[in-house]
Design a protein that fits this description.
- 4 copies of one chain form a homotetramer.
- With 286 residues, the first copy, chain A, is α/β, with parallel strands linked by helices.
- The first copy, chain A, has 2 domains: 162 residues, Rossmann fold, CATH 3.40.50; 117 residues, N-(1-d-carboxylethyl)-l-norvaline Dehydrogenase, domain 2.
- Chain A is built from 12 helices and 10 strands.
- In chain A, the strands form 2 sheets. A 7-stranded mixed β-sheet of chain A has the order 3-2-1-4-5-6-9, with helices on both faces. In chain A, strands 7-8-10 form a 3-stranded mixed β-sheet.
- In chain A, helix 2 links the parallel strand 2 and strand 3.
- In chain A, helix 8 packs across helix 10 and helix 8 crosses helix 11.
- The interface between A and B is large, with 66 and 66 residues.
Chain lengths: 286, 286, 286, 286
C-alpha cells in the first residue's frame, strides 16, 4: 500500500489527515508543535521526526501550512522535505502561496530528485472535515495521478489544471469573482434598505432566484447583523483582488469591475476592517 | 367562488392564466389579438369583450403586458380597466413598468373606485409555465390578501413589499445585483482564459463552490460559446443599472461597483450589443 | 442708445450691472429687495417697479438669480418679465438652470412675443467684478448680436453655442471636467503625502509644469490646510456630475472616469460635506 | 572651476550638455556612439574615453539614458562609472528608472566610494533646449548642493525631495495626475461633441477658465484631429498609472479615479494604441 505523509496539522490539515486515515490509508504525520499529532496517532497514524524523515519514508508527502514563509521553512533546510525527497518521490504543497513561492519550492524539490505538484484548496473548516474541498492541482501530472485516491477522499473535486502556477491563478480568478460578487451584493442590500425594503425579504428573494448561491446565504445574515466574525480576513481578499487586477494588467486585459471592487476593499481596510471578515466591505457602503 | 380576470396573453400571461385554470379557478381572459384566447377558452376560460368588461365582471383582474405604454392602454380609455373597476374591485398589474407609470395607474384605479396592487414578476417563460415565478407585490394589502391563492398557483414566492413603488424598487435591486455579478463573472472568466486556464474547468469549479448559482450555470456556456441569444436584452439591463445608480444618488448612497458595471454595459450597448442578451457584456471584456 | 434692464442684484448681478453702468450704458435695475438697488441708482441707474415694467421699458433685459424657482418667478405671473416682453423685445436669462427650466422660460417668452437667449456664466465674484466672466450664450442669434456689446463689458468671452439648451450642456461639460480634475488632484496629493513627499513641493512642481492651472493653484492650499470654505458647494458639483453621466447615458457614451469621480463626490456628500466647498472631496480620499 | 561630466547624448542629453557648455562650465562628454560627441566637442567640450574615465576625471558626472538597462550598463562593469567614482566624487543619474534600479545604482556608487543623487526630469525636448526642465532631485544632499549651479542652467526648478526613491515617487504622482486629467478631458470633449457642441469652442472655453493648462492646450487639437503622434507613449503612461495605484495599495490609500483611468488606458493599450501618444486614450472613449 502507498504511504502518505502529512505535514501541517492546523484546522485544515488535521481534518484532511483524519479523512485519509478513516479511508484506510497508511499516514505518517508531522507538525512543528508535536502535541497536535497525538489525536491522529491515536487514530492510527505514524509520527515522523522531521519533514525530511516524512519525505524519505513516504511515497507522497502532503503539506498544508498557513503562509509562504512556513511553506518555505517546511521545504528547505537540513531537516526539510527537500533533504529527504530523492528517488522521484512526490511532494504536494496544498498551502495557498504566491506564484514565486510555488515556483521556488518546485525547483528545489525537482533539483533534489523529487517530483512536485501544487494543490491549493478552496474551502474552509467544514468542507475539510466533510471531505468536500475543491483541490486545485497543477504541476507534475504523474504526481497528480498517484495522489488522486487521496484527493478523492479529501475533496469533492480535484481538477488537474496544468503546469505549476496554474493552481494559484485559478484561485485568483475564484477570489476575484467572489470579491466582486460580495461588493455588488453589499451595494444591492444597502440600496434596498435605504429604499425602505425589508432586508430579510431581499435575502429571501435573492435566495429564491437565479442568483441564489451559498455565499450570499452565509454572508447575507452577517451583513444584516453587521456581524463580521472572521472566516476569510478582508485584507487577504483585498490582496488577492490586487494580484488579480495586476495579472490582468500583465495579460493586457481590462477589469474595471474588479479594479473598483478592489478600491472598496481597500477603503474598508483603510477604515480598520482588514482583520475582520470579507463581509466588512459592507461597512463602507451601507 | 372568486372570479379572476386575466388580461395579456403573451408568453408569460398565457402560461400564468393556464396555471390558474388548471388549479380550478374561474378565469375570464382578454387579449388585444383575440386569437390568443382560443386555447384558454378550450381549457375552460370565459372570454371578455374588453378590459372594461373583464374588470366589471371579475373580483380580481390581473394584467401582464410588455411595456408601460401597453399597461397604460389597458388601464385607460372608454374600454379600459378603470372604466369598469368600481365598487372596490381589485386590479393587479404584473407588468414590469417604471415607478411613474405604476403610480399613475394606481391613482387612476383608486379614483375610479377600485383597489390596486403592483406585482411585477422575476422569472421568464419556464418559471411562468412551472408556476415558480417570484411575484413582487406592493400596494393595497387587502388586494394582496384576496389574490394570494392565485399568486400561490403562479409563483413559488410572493412577498408583500409595502406601498406602490416598492415592487419596482425590489426589481431594481435584483437586477443591479445581477448586472454586477454578470460583469465580474465575465471579467473572471476572461482573466482565467487569458491565463491559459480551461474555460470549462473554471465553470465547473465555480459551480462546485460557494459562488455556484443558476445564472452562472446558464450564462457560463453562453460566454464560452460567445452565444448571445437574447433572453434578457442587454439594453434593458443597462437601463435598470442606470436607474439603480440614480436611485442610490437620490438616497445618498455610493454604489461604485454598480456604477462601473453600468459603464461596461453602456460600452457593450455602444458596441452594438443592446438587443443581444445581457451575456454580451462579455464582448467588451474578453 | 439701447436700453438695458438688469434683474437680480445679488453678488454676481450687482457687479455685472455696475460694469454696464461704468461702460456708459443706460441701465434700469430691479431687485426683489429694493434696498439693493440704491448703490446702482447712485451710480446712475434707473429703478424699475417690477420685472414686467423693466421688460416693457428696455430693449434687452438681463436676469441672474440663484436657482430655477427664482428664474421662473421672475419670468411668470402678472408682474413678470413675460407680461411686459412683447414686440420682439429681448430677454436674456443668465442664471444657471436646468434644461427643462430654460426651455420653459424660452417658450413663455416667445409665446408672449419676445425673443430669448440663455446665457449662464462660468466664473464667480471676482471675474464678475473684473468683467472677465465666460458667458455661454445659446438661443436666438439676433438677441445675441444685440447683447454682444454688453457681454463684452461683463465677460472676457461670450461664445454663441446654438439653440436653447446648448449653454446648459456646455456648463455640464465644464463642470464634469472640473470634478474629474479635482478628484484626481486630490488622489495625487494624498498619494504624495502618504509617500512622504512634501505637500507644498507637490503643488509647486505641478504649478511649474504642463498641468499648471488656476484651479489647482486655488484649491491646492485649501487641501493642504483642509480648509473647505465654500466657494462652489460640493452638492452642486455632485449634481452636475450626475447630470453629465446621465447625459452620457442618453447619448450612448461611456464615461468611466466621470462615473467614478461622481461616486467619490457622493461619498463626500454622504459624509456630510455637501455644503462645503468642492475641495472637500479630499476628505474621503486622504 | 568645477568639472562636470555628461554621459548620454540623446535628444535630451545633447540639449542639456549644450546648455552647460553655453553657461561656461567645463564639460566632459561621453556617448556609446561617439559620433554624437562631435557637435559638443566643437562647442568646447572634452571627450571622455569611457564612463569610468569621465567619472574619474570630473567632480560631478551626470547621466541621462533611455531605460533602466542602459542606466545599469553605464554604472556597472570594468569601464562603468562605479569603476571610476572613488574619493567621494558625485554621480547624478537623471534617467527615468524604477525604484529598484535607482536603489541598486545608489548602492553600487556608494560602495565604490562615490556619492549619489537621482534626478529624473519632467519635460521633453523643448524644455531641455530652453533650460526649463523640472528636475526631481533625491539622494545625497551634498551632491545636490554641488550640482545646483548646473541644475539652474538645465532647469527652471530643481526641488530637493529627500532620500533616494523620492524622485521616482514624485514622478509617479505627477504622471498619475496627468493620466487622470487626460482621461476626464477626453470624456468631457466626447460628451460635448456628442451633445452637438463645437469641439473648438469647448477647447477655447476650457482654455479661458480656471482649468486652463498647457497639456489641454497641446492635446486638445490632437484629440479633435485624432492625431496621436507619439510624444509620450501610452503604454508608458499606463505602466505609471499601474505603479501609482500599486503604491497607493501599499500605502493603504484608495485611488478610485486613478484606478479607473488606468483601466481606460489599459483598454486603449489592448486596442493597439500602446505605442501611440497618451492622447490615444480618446480612441476608446469617443
Amino acid at each position: 500500500m502507498k504511504k502518505f505523509g502529512f505535514i501541517g496539522l492546523g484546522i485544515m490539515g488535521n481534518a484532511m489527515a483524519l479523512n485519509l486515515l478513516k479511508a484506510g490509508f497508511d499516514v505518517t504525520v508531522w507538525n512543528r508543535n508535536p502535541d497536535k499529532c497525538t489525536e491522529l496517532v491515536n487514530q492510527g497514524a505514524h509520527q515522523g521526526k522531521s519533514p525530511k524523515e516524512v519525505a524519505t519514508h513516504c511515497d507522497v508527502t502532503f503539506t498544508i501550512v498557513s503562509d509562504p514563509a512556513a511553506a518555505m521553512a517546511i521545504c528547505n533546510g537540513p531537516e526539510g522535505v527537500a533533504a529527504g525527497i530523492g528517488d522521484g518521490r512526490c511532494y504536494i504543497d496544498m498551502s495557498t502561496v504566491d506564484d514565486a513561492t510555488s515556483q521556488s519550492i518546485a525547483t528545489t524539490i525537482i533539483e533534489a530528485g523529487g517530483r512536485f505538484l501544487e494543490a491549493p484548496v478552496s474551502g474552509t473548516k467544514k468542507p475539510a472535515e466533510d471531505g468536500t474541498l475543491i483541490i486545485l492541482a497543477a504541476g507534475d501530472k504523474s504526481v497528480y495521478d498517484e495522489a488522486l485516491p487521496a484527493f478523492e477522499v479529501m475533496g469533492k473535486m480535484s481538477p488537474y489544471l496544468g503546469e505549476v502556477g496554474q493552481g494559484a491563478k485559478m484561485k485568483l480568478v475564484l477570489n476575484m469573482v467572489m470579491g466582486g460578487m460580495l461588493s455588488i451584493f453589499s451595494e444591492g442590500l444597502s440600496l434596498g434598505l435605504k429604499a425602505d425594503l425589508d432586508g430579510q425579504q431581499i435575502l429571501d428573494i435573492l435566495d429564491a432566484g437565479a442568483m441564489a448561491n451559498p455565499m450570499f446565504k452565509v454572508k447575507g445574515p452577517m451583513l444584516l447583523d453587521e456581524n463580521y466574525t472572521t472566516s476569510f480576513p478582508l485584507k487577504h481578499m483585498q490582496k488577492d483582488m490586487r494580484l488579480a487586477v495586476d495579472l490582468g494588467d500583465k495579460l493586457n486585459l481590462t477589469l474595471p469591475t474588479a479594479a473598483i471592487a478592489n478600491e472598496s476593499f481597500k477603503q474598508a481596510r483603510k477604515a480598520g476592517a482588514g482583520d475582520e471578515d470579507i463581509a466588512a466591505i459592507y461597512k463602507i457602503i451601507k
